[in-house]
C-alpha cells in the first residue's frame, strides 16, 4: 500500500514506539490519528505531525468506536492500524512471602495487551472492509506489537509473555480471516528498545541490557521499529508474519 495520503491510526501513539510510528507515517505522507489514553500527550504529538489526537481506551468498545469516528471525521476512513498500545508487569507466581500472585494483575495485562488489541482490531476491520479496494484488491493493513517475551519470557513475566504470545498466535488466523476482505495483518516482536520506560532505569542497567544484544550491541531505536512498521504497510506481500526485531537477542531467564 502506498502510505502517501492514507488515513492511519496509531494506538499508544503518544509515546515510545507508538510515537515513533506516528511520526514516521506522517513523514511518509499519511494522515495520522494519535490514539492514547493520555490525551494531553497525544495532542502534543498530533500538533507536531499535523495529525489529530483521540483519547482512546482500547479495552472499551465505546471508546474505540468514538475514536474511530473522530479520526474518520478528520481524515476519512482509515486503512492503516498500528496497534502499539500496551502495558507490562512483573510478578512471581509465588512471592517471597509465600503468597500467590494477584489474579487481578494477570487479568489486567492480558485485558489491555491481548483483548484490547483484538477489540481495536475487530472494530477497525469492520469499517475497513467496507472501503473500495486498492491495487491487488487491498483494503487495509493491521500491525500487532508483540515482544521477544512472547518466546523468551523471563522470570515474573507470565502475564506479559502470555499476552504477547497471544498476539503472536493471533497473527496468522487474523490474516487468513481478513484475507477475504483484502486486509493484511503482521506482527513485530521487538527486543530491548530505548523507550521512555527503559530510560527510567539507571544508566548502568541500561548499559548492561544493551551489552546482552549480540549485534548491534545497543538498545534498539524507536525509529527502527517505526521503519519496519512502515515497510510492512508498503510491502503488500507481507502478511500473516511475525518478525523479531531484536539484534539476535535471546533473553536469559532473569
Automatic annotation (TrEMBL):
<keyword id="KW-0560">Oxidoreductase</keyword>
<protein>
    <submittedName>
        <fullName>SDR family NAD(P)-dependent oxidoreductase</fullName>
    </submittedName>
</protein>
<dbReference type="Pfam" id="PF00106">
    <property type="entry name" value="adh_short"/>
</dbReference>
<dbReference type="GO" id="GO:0016491">
    <property type="term" value="F:oxidoreductase activity"/>
</dbReference>
<comment type="similarity">
    <text>Belongs to the short-chain dehydrogenases/reductases (SDR) family.</text>
</comment>
<dbReference type="InterPro" id="IPR036291">
    <property type="entry name" value="NAD(P)-bd_dom_sf"/>
</dbReference>
<dbReference type="InterPro" id="IPR020904">
    <property type="entry name" value="Sc_DH/Rdtase_CS"/>
</dbReference>
<dbReference type="InterPro" id="IPR002347">
    <property type="entry name" value="SDR_fam"/>
</dbReference>
Amino acid at each position: 500500500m502506498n502510505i502517501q495520503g492514507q488515513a492511519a491510526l496509531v494506538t499508544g501513539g503518544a509515546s515510545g514506539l507508538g510515537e515513533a510510528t506516528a511520526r514516521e507515517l506522517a513523514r511518509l505522507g499519511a494522515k495520522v490519528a494519535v490514539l492514547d489514553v493520555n490525551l494531553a500527550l497525544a495532542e502534543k504529538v498530533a500538533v507536531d505531525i499535523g495529525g489529530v489526537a483521540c483519547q482512546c481506551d482500547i479495552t472499551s468498545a465505546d471508546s474505540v468506536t468514538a475514536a474511530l469516528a473522530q479520526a474518520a471525521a478528520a481524515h476519512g476512513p482509515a486503512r492503516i492500524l498500528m496497534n502499539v498500545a500496551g502495558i507490562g508487569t512483573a510478578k512471581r507466581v509465588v512471592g517471597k512471602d509465600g503468597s500467590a500472585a494477584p489474579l487481578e494483575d494477570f487479568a489486567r495485562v492480558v485485558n489491555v495487551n491481548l483483548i484490547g488489541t483484538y477489540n481495536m482490531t475487530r472494530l477497525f476491520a469492520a469499517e475497513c472492509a467496507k472501503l473500495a479496494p486498492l491495487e491487488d484488491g487491498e483494503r487495509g493493513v493491521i500491525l500487532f506489537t508483540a515482544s521477544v517475551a512472547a518466546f523468551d519470557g523471563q522470570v515474573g513475566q507470565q502475564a506479559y509473555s502470555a499476552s504477547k504470545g497471544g498476539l503472536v498466535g493471533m497473527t496468522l488466523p487474523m490474516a487468513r480471516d481478513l484475507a477475504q476482505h483484502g486486509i493484511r495483518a503482521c506482527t513485530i516482536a521487538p527486543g530491548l528498545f530505548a523507550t521512555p520506560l527503559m530510560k527510567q532505569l539507571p544508566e548502568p542497567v541500561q548499559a548492561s541490557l544493551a551489552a546482552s544484544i549480540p549485534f548491534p550491541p545497543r538498545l534498539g531505536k524507536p525509529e527502527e521499529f517505526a521503519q519496519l512498521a512502515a515497510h510492512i504497510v508498503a510491502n503488500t506481500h507481507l502478511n500473516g508474519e511475525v518478525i523479531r526485531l531484536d539484534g539476535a537477542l535471546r533473553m536469559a531467564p532473569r
